[in-house]
Every structure is written in C-alpha cells, then in structure tokens.
Amino acid sequence: MSAIAPWLGARAQVSGPLPAIECNGAVLSYAELSTRAHEAAGHLAELGIRHGDVVALLLENGVPFVELLYAAVLSGAVLLPLNLRLTPTELGVQLREARARLLVHGNGAIAERARAAAPPGTRTLEIASARRAFERAPESERTDAMFTQVRPDSTLALLFTSGTSGTPKGTELTHANFQWSALASAAHLGADPRDRWLACMPLFHVGGLSILIRALLYGNSVVVHERFDAVSVDRALDRDGVTHVSLVATMLARILDVRGSRPAPDTLRCVLLGGGPAPTDLIDHATLLGFPIAPTYGLTEAASQVATRPPGSGTAVAGAGLVPLIGNELRIVAENGRDCADGDAGELWLRGPTVMRGYRQQPAETASALAGGWLHTGDVAIRAGDGTLTILARRSDLIVSGGENVYPAEVEAALCEHPAVVDAAVAAVADPEFGQRPAAWLVFHPDAHEVPAADALRQFCRQRLAAFKVPVRFERLDALPRTASGKLKRGELKSKTPLSG
To answer: Which residues contact 6 (CB under 8 A, 6 or more apart)?
Structure first.
C-alpha cells in the first residue's frame, strides 16, 4: 500500500472534471483541486517546510482547509488541525507540544487568537495572504517529486484528543491509518463514485478529516458547510443530492425538529451517527421517517470508525449491534487481563492497521495505551455471540455505586425517553454510604408545557431502571457542555452542582 500523496494526481487524471468540493456555491473539480494543492505545496516548500515538519491550521471549514490538507500531504508535512473553540493558551500548548513550524490561520478574531497563541519558532500566515502566495509559487516546486519521501508509515496528521478523559494528547495517524480506514469503511458501507458526502461537522476533527480522505480515494464529491446549521443541512439533504452525512445525536435531533414529519429524501443512503450512544427513541423516530441510521463507534486513536451498524438495519438498542470493520481485531478484557465471555462487560482492546503509531512526545502514555500491541481504548463494551458489539461507557465514566456498575449511557437513554427531555448527561457524585451515586443534568424541550420536578423524573426512571441506577439529584441546563465534535465533556458537569431532589 502506497502513501496517500500520489492519489491526488491519480484522482485528477481519472476524475479531473468531476466535482471534488462544493462550498458556498463554489464548485472545485478534482483537476482544479490538484492544481491548487500543488500551488500551496510549492509555497510551503518556499517557506522551508520539509518532510516531517508540522503545519498547523486554524481555519473554518472551507476550500482553503481542503487545499492545505492536500498541500501538506504532497509536501510530506504533518498536518495539525486546531480546534477553533480553544483559547490562545490552549492553542499555544498544542503548538508547542507539536513543535509546529507554521500556523496558517483565518482572518479577524481568528487571526488575533492565532497571533496570541503562536509560540516562538512558529511562523504565522493569514490565509488571504497565503492564497495570493500560492498562485505565485514557482512551477519547479509543484512536481510529484515532493512526495517521493512520503511513506505509508509517515505521519499524515497530528490530532489532539478531545480531552474528555484527561489532558489532551497528540495522536499521530499515518497515511496507512487513514487509507485502511477508508477502505474498511467502503467495504462496510459501500462506495460509489457518484456518492455525495455532506461535511457539516468540523474538518479539524478526525471524523471530518476522514470524510475528505475517503472522498479522494473513492472519487466522491464533498459538500462542505462552514458550520453546522440544522436549517442549512435540512435544505442540503433535499436539494443537493446528498447520499451520506456524518452526524452526532444532537445534530440529528435538531435536523428532525426542523423537518417535522417530512420523510428522508430518497437520495440519502447513510447517516453515520457517532460521538457516543444516541437515545433509542431518537433513532426510532429517524428510522420511521426513512433515515438510514448507521450508529457507529470510533475514536481518534483508530482513525475514526471501528464498528458500525449497517444503515437502516432496524431499531436495535442504541449502541448495540455494531459490526467491527474489516481489519479490526477486537478483545473484551476483564480487569484481571483475561478475555471476557460473550455477554460480559469489559474493556475494549483493538488491534489493526488503523491504530495510531502513538502519542507525540509522550512515550510513557504511548506504551500504556498500546501495551502488548493492543490499543486499550478505555471504553466498556460487550460482545454478543454473533460478534457484534454494544458500547456501554468509557471506563473513566463508569459509576460504581455500592459495588454495582452504573453505565451513564444507559441512564441517559432512559431519561431521553421522557417527552420533556431533549438531552441528558449522567455522572457520579460522591456518596458517604455507596461511594458514588448517579446524578443527572438535563436539557428540557423549549415547548414543554411543564418542566417535571425531580420526584417525577425519579419515578419515571424507576419504571425503566434498577433502583441503584436512578439519579439521586437533577440539574436543569440550557445546553450540555460538549466538544466541537459533539462528545459530552462529562468532567465539566462536576462544576455544575446538581439540585437535590
């Protein structure tokens, strides 16, 4: 298997006039994308960027982000996509840990944060100036010779984990990681050159980045939205011939609110639903409207997808029935290090060609995460007799109450069945008798006639859950704290003291 770098030129030869990227009404063909990426790579070479150097991006979704992704690929540089929601202090930490040579950033307020964040030794370049410079790059630099050093095991992207389970770590993903992920996803979901994937999640996230790389290898076109907006996505589903879209549960819920009773368009073949377990009633509602929901489990350290339920395959329990992608070898391991029997919960371990090469500059963390040649995901799962998976929780999220295990996702799913509840989060609070007890933070539907009291919510849960799983305290929030990719920032809930019931 070769590196991804030569694929851009090959795709331009095969699919030159076909649309590669569509954004804000502009359409860029594969031939045009190849030309512009080579121009950008030429300018990176002029700036002294060489194989293995880190190029950081602080950009909104759009054509410039895509150009620079492939420019980095051509140059053999390591791409560091930065989260637009981070503060200058947080950005500075990641830039220093990555030892970034160059930071390409957006305009206005983004430019101010970029300049405040850039440490000594990191050059900054505003995208408007960069675009003009790309077009002036010398032709001699824009040749395929730039990727002769790029090997499949070269690092393509450095992605910092979301930090939902601790301090963010820089995950090194190789060309081979992304390519194997794309091929395994195609074998699982199917791929057609006529497919059109809607990218409305952040491109700086592994899920968004994977969409772009999959499209290049498949020859698909990607409809890029600058940010998620339910009305815009709803319109795109109906008008833009979208066949695939990646969402998290909160995005799907907002889209369904906008659509009302209108069924899914016939063109839509797959809604890849990730970011954590989704409420069963949400999946049921979407399925009744004809949305081909494919719940998926993945993580940054495995280049996105790990196991996915085939699109539209019924209304099984949320997080259950996930089929591992081809090439992924899985184990469910008990605390004593032995494999669990089918049906028993344990930590999910993963081995295969999509697993990261390690965490940058963190050998101890890498050795721990990849001990014995297996990626220790920290996620609790059950394997059924047919080999399918049910994802229960992160091990760090597990609540141990009086010796009983409480999985937050299960309690959250029960709470989301309440007609007044839009979103729910569950985490542990200290308890002198039981050690820990579950507490809940809830977002209520704005049209709810009456917000239920804590006693009513507790009684609602008792009808669905064992007593030890019922939250002892509740708190009302306007919105749950989530990362840009939609993952719940469970650690931040602890600072929002629940109300006693």
So the answer is: 144, 147
Q: Could you tell me the CATH superfamily of domain 197-395?
A: ANL, N-terminal domain (3.40.50.12780)
When pLDDT is averaged across residues 452-476 and rounded to a whole number, the result is 90
Query: 399-500, superfamily in CATH?
Result: ANL, C-terminal domain (3.30.300.30)
Closest to 489 (Cα-Cα) out of 183, 192, 161, 78: 161
Residue type, 182: A
Contact criterion met (CB below 8 Å) for 60 and 106: yes
Query: Rounded to 5 degrees, what are φ and ψ at 362?
Result: -135, 75
| Residue 72: C-alpha distances to residues 76, 242, 300, 448 (Å) | 6, 28, 20, 49
Most confident of 149-153, 334-338, 401-405: 334-338
DSSP annotation string for 13-53? HHHTTSEEEEETTEEEEHHHHHHHHHHHHHHHHHTT--TT-
Residue 165 to residue 249: CA distance in whole angstroms: 20
Model confidence at 142: pLDDT above 50: no
Asked if residue 103 lies in contact with residue 122, where contact means CB atoms within 8 angstroms, the answer is: yes
User: Encoding tokens for residue 202?
Assistant: 């952040």
Give the span between the Cα atoms of 280 and 419, in whole angstroms.
Answer: 13
Q: Which two tokens stand for residue 182?
A: 């794309």
Count other Cβ atoms within 10 Å, centred on residue 463: 9
Pair 81, 95: CB distance under 8 Å: no
pLDDT digits (tens, 9 = 90+) for 52-78: 999 999 999 999 999 999 999 888 899
Mean pLDDT of the chain: 88
In angstroms, the CA 225 to CA 215 distance is 16
DSSP helix, strand, coil percent of the chain (3-state; round to 5)? 35, 25, 40
The type of residue at 351 is: R
Instruction: Report which of 449, 467, 445 is spatially closest to residue 458, judged by C-alpha positions.
Output: 467
The CA–CA distances, whole Å, from 411 to 285, 380, 438, 445, 474 equal 19, 15, 9, 18, 13
Q: Which residues make Cβ contacts (< 8 Å) with residue 201, sequence separation at least 6?
A: 207, 208, 228, 246, 247, 248, 251, 485, 486
SS3 call for 209:
helix
Strands laid side by side in the 155-160 sheet: 123-126, 102-105, 54-58, 78-81, 155-160, 170-174, 358-359
Where do the CATH 3.40.50.980 domains begin and end in the chain?
30-151
Q: What is the CATH number of domain 30-151?
A: 3.40.50.980
